[in-house]
Amino acid sequence: MSRAPFGTRLTAAVAARGSLCVGIDPHPGLLDQWGLPRDASGLERFALTCVEAFAGEISVIKPQSAFFEAYGSRGVAVLERVIAEAQAAGALVLLDVKRGDIGSTMAAYAQAYLSDSSPLAADAVTVSPYLGFGSLDPAIEAAEATGRGVFVLALTSNPEGASVQRALVGGLGGVDGPGGVSVAQSIVDQAAARNAAQRAATGAPLGSVGLVVGATVGRTGLDLSALDGPVLAPGLGAQGAGAAELAAVFGPTLPRVLPASSRDVLRHGPDAAALRTAALRVRDELAAAAR
C-alpha cells in the first residue's frame, strides 16, 4: 500500500484538526471510575467509546499498548479494533509501545507495528534508543518504507530518567565524557540526521523520526532547532503542564509539538459526547495559546 510519508500526513492532520494528541489509557482505576469491569469486556467498552469520542475530531490518538496487553489475546484483539476503527475515522494512531531491542528482534517488532501486513500496524510507534540509536534502524527503515513514523524517547519526565538521559557523552554516539553533550542531545542529533536524509529524498515538510520530550521537564537544555521532525510532549493537564509550560519547555519548536493528554480528558467519561467536548476544549485552548 502506497502512502505519503508520515511527516506529510501528520502536517496535514494537525492543520485540519489541531495539535492535540489524546491518549487511550484503560487504566484499572479509570475502568472503575467509568463503572466498567476490570476485564476484556470493560476494556473494549472503554476503548471503543474513546474511539467514538475522539477519532473523528482529533488528529492523533495514542493507545497505551500495555493496558491492552494486560488482558492477553482478548486485549490485543481490542487494540487491533481500536487501531483499525480510529484510522477509518480519520485519526492518526500513535501506538505507545516503547519497544527497543537489537537485530532480528527489533526487526520483528518493526514487522508487528509498522508493516502493512500486520493488524497491529499503527501510523507511528514509540521506541526506546537505550540499546544505542543504531539499534532502531529496523524500525526506522520499516517506517520510512511504509509511510509511517517513530517517536524516539529522548527526555522523559520520570525522575529516574535523568541519570541516563542527562548524562554526558563525548559527542555524537560517543562514550568518552565528561565534557560532551547529553545523552538526550545525542539522540536529538541522530534523529535530526535521519530526518534530513529522508526530507532530502522525499521533500516531506517534516521528517518521520520524532522525539518524546516530557512537557513537565522544565528547561531541557536541548537544541531541537535542527530536528525537522515532530515532538510528542506527554504530561498535558493532569500531570501539570499547560500552554505556558509548553512554551517554556519548547520555545520556537512549539509549532512541531504534539501535546499529549490522557487522564485529564478521560476523567470525563464514560459519556462519549462529554469526552469529545473535553478534548475539543483542550485542543482549542492550545490553538488559542499558539496564536
Automatic annotation (TrEMBL):
PROSITE patterns: OMPDECASE. Keywords: Decarboxylase, Lyase, Pyrimidine biosynthesis. Residues 19-278 form the Orotidine 5'-phosphate decarboxylase domain. The keyword Lyase applies. Pathway: Pyrimidine metabolism; UMP biosynthesis via de novo pathway; UMP from orotate: step 2/2. Its EC number is 4.1.1.23. It catalyses: orotidine 5'-phosphate + H(+) = UMP + CO2. The active site is at K98 (proton donor). Pfam families: OMPdecase. The keyword DNA repair does not apply. Belongs to the OMP decarboxylase family. Type 2 subfamily. This is Orotidine 5'-phosphate decarboxylase. The gene is pyrF.
